[in-house]
Design a protein that fits this description.
With 293 residues, the chain is mainly beta. Helix content is 12%, strand content 51%.
Length: 293
């Protein structure tokens, strides 16, 4: 199996674990549903799953490049080693886990401590697959429990075609950002007058958006104001998505809760986002970012 650094010594990563039960990686085409009772932490090139009810036990997920069951079996026949005193060798035979994965029991050491592991290699029909290492030191968790959790994790992994790089780029640009446009006009000739217009879209990571619009017009001594309100509930004013059009350009689709839909062709240039040719600023952070819950 592919090598990567494991954090076995006292498992310090556990204190930073997150409780999200579903992880999605559109750019990789990988989704992971985390079994009940486990929490997750995203590390560099790995995902660490753990439970306080399973001391000295860790479930490590990473990508591999194998493309066939035979390649997975060949890789598993060699000891799994790392420079921190980890060496795990296959114990007994591998077995098929469904049509796209193989798994087996391994034993040896992890960071110098006696360890047992159940390791699964899962194939991805669209690209890089996933390795699952369920490991415990000092007989803290039985191999039967390790196998049970590894199989549950394996069952919760699903693959799809990775997002186009352009889609990934623009999703990252607008996700959890405030897109804002404003214009001002004034005239001192004749009667004189002025107008101001602004629109703001808060694009929230949970998949909804919030719209704000405001315009004012004054001519001579008369003035009027029009304001488009917002809905800051968990549903906002609707949902958003980005797709590619026939010219391979990214298009922001805003689907309002009332059934209306707006489509904006996007283009990023010099720090601004063009939406159908209109320049919008991109704001982030507590001061300039979106009012997402």
């Amino acid at each position: 199996m592919k090598r990567f650094i494991l954090f076995f010594v006292l498992f310090p990563a556990l204190a930073l674990a997150q409780s999200a039960q579903k992880l999605e990686y559109p750019s990789l085409g990988v989704g992971i549903e985390i079994p009940t009772g486990l929490t997750a932490q995203e590390g560099e090139d790995v995902i660490l799953l753990s439970s306080y009810s399973l001391p000295q036990t860790l479930f490590v997920l990473s990508m591999h490049e194998y493309s066939s069951i035979d390649e997975l079996k060949e890789a598993a026949s060699e000891p799994y080693t790392e420079d921190n005193g980890t060496r795990l060798s296959l114990k007994g035979d591998l077995r098929n886990i469904g049509a796209d994965a193989v798994g087996g029991t391994f034993s040896g050491t992890a960071a110098g401590a006696a360890a047992e592991a159940f390791i699964i290699g899962k194939l991805n029909p669209h690209g890089s697959g996933v390795s699952i290492i369920a490991v415990s030191t000092n007989n803290s968790t039985s191999i039967q429990v390790l196998e049970e959790y590894a199989i549950k994790i394996n069952a919760g992994i699903h693959f799809s075609k990775p997002d186009d790089p352009v889609l990934t780029e623009y999703r990252n640009r607008i996700n959890n950002a405030r897109l804002q446009y404003s214009s001002n006009y004034s005239s001192s000739g004749g009667i004189g007058g002025s107008s101001n217009y602004s629109e703001t879209y808060d694009i929230c990571g949970a998949g909804y958006f919030i719209y704000y619009g405001n315009s004012s017009l004054s001519v001579g001594s008369n003035s009027s104001n029009v304001y488009g309100g917002s809905n800051s509930s968990s549903q906002g004013n609707g949902s958003w998505n980005i797709e590619l059009n026939s010219s391979n350009e990214p298009v922001l689709i805003l689907s309002y809760n009332n059934g209306n839909e707006e489509r904006y062709t996007l283009y990023y240039e010099r720090g601004y986002l063009q939406m159908n040719g209109t320049k919008h600023t991109i704001g982030r952070g507590s001061e300039y970012g979106p009012a997402c819950n």
